[in-house]
C-alpha cells in the first residue's frame, strides 16, 4: 500500500503551481458561468411578469437588477476563463468548460425546480470523472519568457499550415456553403464557429501570457506581436458571435450546444497540440488517458443535453418535438431536427 502511494506521488508531484492556478481559475469560471444562466433566467422571469417578455421582443429585463447580476457574474466567469489560459495549457482549461453545464443543470434543479432526469445525473457524473482524469494527467504549462516566443511558435510551419487550412475552410464555408446550406445544415454555422474558435483561443492564450509577464515586471505591451494577437482575437470573437447567434436562432439550442462544445474543444486541443507541442512533454500513456477523459466528458455532455427535456416527460418516451426555446422565456416551441426544413423556416418568419 505504501509503495502504491509513493508511486502515485512520483507520478503527480510534478503538477506545477501555474497548472494549479489555471485549474482554480477554470473551475471558478465554470461556477460563475453556470450560475449566471440561472440568475439571468430568474431575472428574465421576474421582468416578464411585469412587462413584455424577452421572447416577445421586450427589453424590460434591462431594468431588472437580477438580470444584471447574472450578466456581471457571466463576465467575471469569462475573465477567469481568460486568465486560466495564461497559466495552464488549453488541453486542461478547455474541456473543463463542460462543468458549467453541470453547475447550471444542478442549480436549475434546486432553484428553478427544473427536474434533472436520472440519466442527466449520470451525465453529470461522467463529466466530473472525465474532468478529474484530464486534470490528473494534463501536461505541464510550457515555460515562456516573452510574447516573442509565442509568436515564434505561431509562425512555425506546422501551425502556419493548420492556420491556413482553418482560414481556407472558413472562407469556403462562408462564401460557398452558407448561402445554400446555412439554414438547413447545422454543421455549416457550427463549423465556422469552431474553426475560428480554435485560433481565437490560441491568441487569447498569447495575450494572457503577455499580460501575466507584464504584471510580473516584463512589459510585453511594447511588442507589436501582442497587438497582432489582440487583433486576431477581436476578429475571431466577432466572427464566432455572429455565426453562433445564427446557429442558435436557426436550430434547436439543445442540439447546437453539445455539437459546438465537441467541435470547438476538439479543434482547440488540436491547435494547442500543434502550436504549443503539449504532447511532446507527455508519455503515450498520459496522452491516451487524457483522450479517454475527454471522450468521457463528451459522453456526459451529450447525455445531459439529450435527457434534459425528459424530466418533464416522466416515464414517457423521449418527446418527438424538442422546443427550441423554453416557454418560460416567451418563445414558441418548435421541433427542429439536425436539418431544419424550409417549410418550418418560412413559417417562423
UniProtKB/TrEMBL annotation:
<dbReference type="InterPro" id="IPR037185">
    <property type="entry name" value="EmrE-like"/>
</dbReference>
<dbReference type="Pfam" id="PF05653">
    <property type="entry name" value="Mg_trans_NIPA"/>
</dbReference>
<feature type="transmembrane region" description="Helical">
    <location>
        <begin position="20"/>
        <end position="39"/>
    </location>
</feature>
<dbReference type="GO" id="GO:0015095">
    <property type="term" value="F:magnesium ion transmembrane transporter activity"/>
</dbReference>
<protein>
    <recommendedName>
        <fullName>Probable magnesium transporter</fullName>
    </recommendedName>
</protein>
<keyword id="KW-0460">Magnesium</keyword>
<keyword id="KW-1003">Cell membrane</keyword>
<feature type="transmembrane region" description="Helical">
    <location>
        <begin position="119"/>
        <end position="139"/>
    </location>
</feature>
<dbReference type="GO" id="GO:0005769">
    <property type="term" value="C:early endosome"/>
</dbReference>
<feature type="transmembrane region" description="Helical">
    <location>
        <begin position="255"/>
        <end position="275"/>
    </location>
</feature>
<keyword id="KW-0967">Endosome</keyword>
<feature type="transmembrane region" description="Helical">
    <location>
        <begin position="222"/>
        <end position="243"/>
    </location>
</feature>
<comment type="function">
    <text>Acts as a Mg(2+) transporter. Can also transport other divalent cations such as Fe(2+), Sr(2+), Ba(2+), Mn(2+) and Co(2+) but to a much less extent than Mg(2+).</text>
</comment>
<feature type="region of interest" description="Disordered">
    <location>
        <begin position="326"/>
        <end position="349"/>
    </location>
</feature>
<keyword id="KW-0406">Ion transport</keyword>
<keyword id="KW-0813">Transport</keyword>
<feature type="transmembrane region" description="Helical">
    <location>
        <begin position="159"/>
        <end position="179"/>
    </location>
</feature>
<feature type="transmembrane region" description="Helical">
    <location>
        <begin position="86"/>
        <end position="112"/>
    </location>
</feature>
<dbReference type="InterPro" id="IPR008521">
    <property type="entry name" value="Mg_trans_NIPA"/>
</dbReference>
<comment type="subunit">
    <text>Homodimer.</text>
</comment>
<keyword id="KW-0472">Membrane</keyword>
<dbReference type="GO" id="GO:0005886">
    <property type="term" value="C:plasma membrane"/>
</dbReference>
<feature type="transmembrane region" description="Helical">
    <location>
        <begin position="186"/>
        <end position="210"/>
    </location>
</feature>
<comment type="similarity">
    <text>Belongs to the NIPA (TC 2.A.7) family.</text>
</comment>
<keyword id="KW-0812">Transmembrane</keyword>
<feature type="transmembrane region" description="Helical">
    <location>
        <begin position="60"/>
        <end position="80"/>
    </location>
</feature>
<keyword id="KW-1133">Transmembrane helix</keyword>
Amino acid at each position: 500500500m505504501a509503495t502504491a502511494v509513493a508511486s502515485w506521488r512520483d507520478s503527480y508531484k510534478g503538477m506545477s503551481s501555474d497548472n494549479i492556478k489555471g485549474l482554480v481559475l477554470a473551475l471558478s469560471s465554470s461556477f460563475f458561468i453556470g450560475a449566471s444562466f440561472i440568475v439571468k433566467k430568474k431575472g428574465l422571469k421576474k421582468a416578464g411578469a411585469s412587462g413584455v417578455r424577452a421572447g416577445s421582443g421586450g427589453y424590460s429585463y434591462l431594468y431588472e437588477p437580477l438580470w444584471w447580476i447574472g450578466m456581471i457574474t457571466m463576465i467575471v466567469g469569462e475573465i477567469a476563463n481568460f486568465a486560466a489560459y495564461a497559466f495552464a495549457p488549453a488541453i486542461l482549461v478547455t474541456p473543463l468548460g463542460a462543468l458549467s453545464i453541470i453547475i447550471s443543470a444542478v442549480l436549475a434543479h434546486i432553484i428553478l425546480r427544473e427536474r434533472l432526469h436520472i440519466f442527466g445525473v449520470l451525465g453529470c457524473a461522467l463529466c466530473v470523472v472525465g474532468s478529474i482524469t484530464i486534470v490528473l494527467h494534463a501536461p505541464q504549462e510550457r515555460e515562456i519568457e516573452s510574447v516573442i516566443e509565442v509568436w515564434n511558435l505561431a509562425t512555425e510551419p506546422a501551425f502556419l499550415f493548420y492556420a491556413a487550412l482553418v482560414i481556407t475552410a472558413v472562407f469556403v464555408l462562408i462564401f460557398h456553403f452558407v448561402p445554400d446550406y446555412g439554414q438547413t445544415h447545422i454543421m455549416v454555422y457550427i463549423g465556422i464557429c469552431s474553426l475560428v474558435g480554435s485560433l481565437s483561443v490560441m491568441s487569447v492564450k498569447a495575450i494572457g501570457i503577455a499580460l501575466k509577464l507584464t504584471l510580473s515586471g516584463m512589459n510585453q505591451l511594447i511588442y507589436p506581436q501582442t497587438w497582432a494577437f489582440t487583433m486576431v482575437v477581436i476578429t475571431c470573437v466577432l466572427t464566432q458571435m455572429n455565426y453562433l447567434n445564427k446557429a442558435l436562432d436557426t436550430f434547436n439550442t439543445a442540439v447546437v450546444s453539445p455539437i459546438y462544445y465537441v467541435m470547438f474543444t476538439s479543434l482547440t486541443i488540436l491547435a494547442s497540440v500543434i502550436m504549443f507541442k503539449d504532447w511532446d512533454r507527455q508519455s503515450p500513456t498520459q496522452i491516451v488517458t487524457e483522450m479517454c477523459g475527454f471522450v468521457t466528458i463528451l459522453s456526459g455532455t451529450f447525455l445531459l443535453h439529450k435527457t434534459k427535456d425528459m424530466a418533464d416527460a416522466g416515464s414517457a418516451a423521449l418527446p418527438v418535438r424538442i422546443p427550441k426555446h423554453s416557454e418560460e422565456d416567451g418563445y414558441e416551441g418548435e421541433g427542429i431536427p439536425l436539418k431544419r426544413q424550409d417549410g418550418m423556416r418560412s413559417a417562423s418568419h
